[in-house]
Every structure is written in C-alpha cells, then in structure tokens.
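Changelog-adjacent note: as of this version, every example in the card shows the full chain rather than a window. The one below runs 513 residues end to end.
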Amino acid sequence: MMDNKPEECSVCFNDYAENRLRPRTLPCGHTFCSQCIDNAIKNGQLTCPSCRAEHAATASTQFPINYAVEALVRKLKNIQLTTEEVVPAKPYEGPAKGISKTLRSMVQEQMSSISRLIISCEEVLSQLGEYRGQLGDWKTHHLQLQDRLYALVEQNKSAMKLLELEDTSVVDMTTQGEEGKTQLQAMLGSLGTLNTPQEVGTTIDTADGCSMKIEDWLRKCQELFPDVKTVHTSVKVQETIREALEMTTTETGATADPIHLGDSASSIMNKVQEITGQIPQKQLTVEDLRRMRESVKRLVEAGLFAVQEDQDGRHRSARITLQDGQLYLHPLLRQPTPTHAHTLQESEVVGVLDPLCTLAFLDLGWAGSTRGRVTIRLTFDTPLARQFVMLCTGQRGPTYRNTKLLEVVNMDDPWECVVGGDYESNDGKGGASLLPDLKGFYQASGRAGTVMDRFGGSRGAQFVITTRDRQDGGRWSGVFGYVVSGLDVVRAAVNHSDITEVTVVDCGVVLPL
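Full-length structure tokens:
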C-alpha cells in the first residue's frame, strides 16, 4: 500500500521530529520512529510492524537514521510556513493606481528575486538539517567509542591487578626459597664439623626437615607458576590495546593532510562526502571495488549488494563480502535490500569474471554449524564450469545453496568421492541441466580434489569431488575443476556419520578485483 503520509510514523502516527521521534530504517527497508522501535524490542529481538521480519536488536540507535525522510519533513514544514507567510490572503488585484508599468515591472522582478531566495533558503535549510543529523550520528559514535575505550582501560586495570597479585606471590615464594637455601647451606657446613654420634643424629634430623621444606617449596613453585589466567589475560589485553592504538594512529595520519574542497557551490553533504571519502548512494562502481579504498571497505562491511531484475519485474539481490582481503559474491536470493545499502548491477559484477578460469566456493556444514569453505578453480570456458558458476551465483534462479551432499561412492577405496548438486529434489533424482548442451573439451585427472560431471544429460547439474589420488594410473574424464583449498573439509564430510546431513550452507564465486 502506498504511504500517503510519509512524514509520520505508521505506528504512532506522530510526525517525525528530533530526539525520540527521529525516523530510522530497519534492514527490511521499513522506517519507524526511534520511540516505536524501542517499544517493539523484546528480549533482543525486533519484529517489523509492517512485514513481520525478525531483526536482532537491543536499541533503536543501532539502526540508521533516514535522512531523506527528515529532509522531506523539513521541506513539508517549510512549504507550509511559506504558504502561510508569503502567499497573500487574497488574490493580487494588480498595482495600485498611479504605479507605472516600469514600477510594476520592478515590483514583479523583486518578487521573483525574493521567491528564488526563499527556494534557496529551503534547500540550504534542508542541507543543514541533514548535516546536523550526520553530526548527531557522529557524536553518538564518539560516545560509543569512548565507552569502548573506557572498557579497554578497565581491562588493562584488571590485567595489571592480576600481574600485581602474581608478582606478590612470586616475591613471597622467592623469600621462602632464599631462607631455605640459607638453612641448607648452614646444614651443609654443620655436617662437615660433627664429632659425636649424638651430634650426627641431631643434625641429620634437622637437615631432613630442611630438605623436606625445600622439596615442598620446589613442588609449589612448579604448581603455582606461571598462573595461566594471569599470563593469558595480560598478553591478550596488550594485543587488543596495541591493535586499537595502531589503528588510531593509522587513521589519524591518513587524515592529517589538509583537504581542499572543490566547487564552493557543491551541497553541504557533497562536501562532507568529499572530506570523509564516502561514496554517494547508488554511485558505487566496479572500478571503486578494484581500487578498494578504505571508505569502500567500510561500505562493503556495512552492506553491499549485487541486484538483478527478473523477467517478471521482481528483484533479487546477492551479498558481496570482504574476507581476508578477498571479495566474494554470494548467490542471488529474493531478499529485501536494506534501504541505505549500496548496490551494483549483478551483470556488471559477474562481467569481471575471467572467461578462462574462475574460483567458486561451497561452504559445507553439518550438526548446525559451518565446518569450512571448499574453493574450486573452474575451467570457465567449458559448459559444465559455466553451469557451475550459474548455480553458485543463482543467475538463472536455481542455486546450490541449501542442497545436500547425496552419497559417498567407493568409500575407503582409492576411487572414493562424494556426490552433490541436486538443486531440485535433494535426493539424487533431480539436478536438471541449465544449459542445452554440456558437450565440450574436458580434461582428465587422477588426483584427489578433482571436480567432474556425474551423469551429464538430464541430471547434468550433479557434480562429483574425488577425495583420494588414484593409484592404478587411471584418470577420470569430464573434469571441469579442481579443489585448491578445503579438501580436508570434503574428507571430514565423508567421515561424517550420515553424508546426507552435510549441506551446502552457502556458495558463490571469488571476484578477481
């Protein structure tokens, strides 16, 4: 349903305003005031009042402010004020008698000039309001960072207390050891000067007592030191604070040089984006991903999606993630794209793939958790490899995501392998080909980690991954890829009690940018 009053919260029907009534957008794309969001959060969960989507949440402040809605509210208020103050109470009836055409022209020109200034005022007021909202967000972020810094200081104090206690314990044990050593040295001297049997018996008994005390002291030292909790806490806290300080130093140095703004006629928020290195909404390009500036990394971490429009006009989106300096494209899904997320056309992103070789990945999981990633190097110039990419990215709809591994063939034999890829029925009876012809020039291999066709023809989407090298000198045919990392994950899946419990939790391709 079309919202006829975008300036008001659809839950409490109050107009958006500052403080508790600021508009904030949920990941599902719907916007409500901060107060209603806080009221809807129960036990760390928030159910969207519009679409009933579930979101993890503890406070409304974790959701972004909808600056566009705030600008709209300000504009509507300004229009209302302008209408009340500028528009005459009754229609203009022309110049008073005695005013010449020249003077009338001057009056009309002045009125036009004032009207233009009013419009300019409205635009700048809207920009100032948006900029003030951004300043408010930054102040909130600084307070959050300050709280985190205080937490680091408290962690450091706690670690120091543990070290002080450990040091006190070491001092006490050192004193005991030195006293025992002195006694043993005295006993050693006494034993060398004994003259009577009575002296020998008495001195030996005393020496035995000293020796037992020292042996007990040696045992305690071995048991007490080092204290594992103290050492572990100290090292970890030092690492955490050192990393935080190094990051702060790097970020400060990166912005130390003065920044010269360009056209003074640019809007206030455009200048802010120029200073901060932010990329305006909807203007991110593949070239930006190639350059991978720090600001682009932050955008990817905040939420970057590749989008595609189906023939029926419905949209699908795929997450783009950054892990260990590498970009990954996940499969297209019918999922709402967050309102403030940056987007790229899926065809533009897929267009960067190497036509000769592509890296795809399958994340395998069982027993309720992801166990590891299997990365496969495909010969992308073959039909089977192109089809594998389509099923990892969901370009044509179907995807390997949430499919099961079907069976282990020749278990414990040199020809051992696993089978998967039935995206249709998940029982081995489906997995229809996406391409009309899968024939082509394919390699042959006898090594572990080979990825090849299982059936071809009607069930050509099913694939096989070998887990052992062939010892008979033979080779498998129909090879269109090789596992370059994660073969241990495949082998662990083979040893799982039930191979059909192993699921492709996620899949996609590596973007060579």
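Structural remarks: Residues 86-92 have pLDDT under 50 and may be disordered.
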